[in-house]
Give the backbone structure.
Amino acid sequence: TNTILTIIPQVDGQPLQGFSNIQAVDVLRNTGQEVNLKVARYQHGAKFEKLQQYLGKYKRVVCAVNERSV
């Protein structure tokens, strides 16, 4: 399979580095009607491998944000 890792490192200019999933969702819920997301996608390379290793250490959690919050 072709794996692509997508991360959101910034929401409205606020870095999310070090935030838990719950904290990141809270930031998204507290944005205005419009939100500026910085998105990074990795399909291969050194950064991809590092992210694969990091994500492998943690259980994957899927978080949903309701329409009102986005």
Observations:
- Helices lie at 21-29, 46-56.
- The two ends are 30 Å apart (CA to CA).
- Residues 59-70 have pLDDT under 50 and may be disordered.
